[in-house]
Amino acid sequence: MILPIVAYGDPVLKVKAKDIPEDYPKLNELIANMFETMYNAYGVGLAAPQIGLPIRMFLVDTSPFADDEELTEEEQKELKDFKKIFINAHIIEEEGEEWAFNEGCLSIPDVREDVYRQPKITMTYQDENFNTYTETFEGLIARVIQHEYDHIDGILFTDKLSSFKKRLLKSRLNNISKGKINVDYKMRFPNQKKRR
User: Fold this and answer.
1) What global pTM score does this model have?
2) Residue-wise over 58-83: b if at least 16 C-beta within 10 A, else e?
3) Are residues 125 and 137 in contact, defined by beta-carbon separation less than 8 angstroms?
4) How many Å apart are CA 153 and CA 56, to the nearest integer?
5) Residue whose C-alpha is closest to residue 177's, from 188, 185, 166, 165
6) 148 among known catalytic residues
7) How confident is the model at residue 74, as a pLDDT?
8) Three-class HEC string of 85-110
9) Judging by beta carbons within 10 Å of its beta carbon (0-12, 13-18, 19+), is residue 193 exposed, middle or buried?
10) What is the Cα gyration radius of the chain?
11) Which residues sit in the known binding site?
12) Do the beta carbons of residue 87 and residue 56 sit within 8 Å?
C-alpha cells in the first residue's frame, strides 16, 4: 500500500525517533508498504518519520545510482546490489574529509542543494529479523544512509545548509509546508488532518 509522505513543516520530521521492540506490530507489512511508497516516489531511501512514524527505521535501495557512467564498474555493481532495512540504527563513527553532494528529499520536493558529509561511517543496526550488525559503509552508500539516519534523529538536509541558503529557500519551504506544490506522489501536508 502506498502511504502519503509527510511534507516539510510537519513536527514528526523534527522528532528524535525511538528504538522499536521486536514485537512491533505488523512490521513486515510496514516494511513492504515503505518500499512500495519509496519506489512510487522514485526515492533511494525512506525513513519512518517521513510516513509519520517516529520510530528508528529506514530503508535504502541505491540501485538508481548504478547508472552513473562516471562510476567504476565495481562501484556501479555495489550500488546496484545495495538494498537494506535499518532498524534501531546508531552511528558509532564518521570519518574522512567532508565532501559535497547534491541532495534532495521526498519530504522536501523540488529542492536540491549541496550537502557536506564525511565519506565513511561505522554503525550498528538491526535487520527486519532483529539480527544485530556493526558495519562500515563508504561513498554514495554512506551518504544515502547518513541522509536517512538524519531523519530518525529529527534532522533534515536543509538544516545542514548555511543561513544564507536557508533564507534563499524560505519561501519555497513555506510553500511546501502549505501544500502549494505539485508532486506526482501522495503527500500529507502539515495543515491536513491525519486520515486513518
Assistant:
1) 0.93
2) bbbbbeebbeeeebeeebbebbeebe
3) no
4) 8
5) 188
6) yes
7) 85
8) EEEEEEEEEEECCCEEEEEEECCEEE
9) exposed
10) 16
11) 105, 147, 151
12) yes
Q: Which residue has the cell 559535497?
A: 100
- Picking from 183, 57, 164, the residue whose alpha carbon sits closest to that of residue 109 is 183
Catalytic residue from among 78, 103, 113, 148: 148
Each of the 196 residues of the chain gets a pLDDT tens digit; together they read 999 999 999 999 999 999 999 999 999 999 999 999 999 999 999 999 999 999 999 999 999 988 888 888 888 888 899 999 999 999 999 999 999 999 999 999 999 999 999 999 999 999 999 999 999 999 999 999 999 999 999 999 999 999 999 999 999 999 999 999 999 999 999 876 554 4
DSSP letter at 15 equals S
- CATH architecture, domain defined by 5-188: Alpha-Beta Complex (3.90)
Cell 565519506 sits on residue = 119
Name the residue ranges covered by the structural domains of the chain.
Answer: 5-188
Binding-site residues from annotation for Fe cation: 105, 147, 151
CA distances (Å), origin 143, targets 96, 104, 116, 174: 12, 12, 9, 26
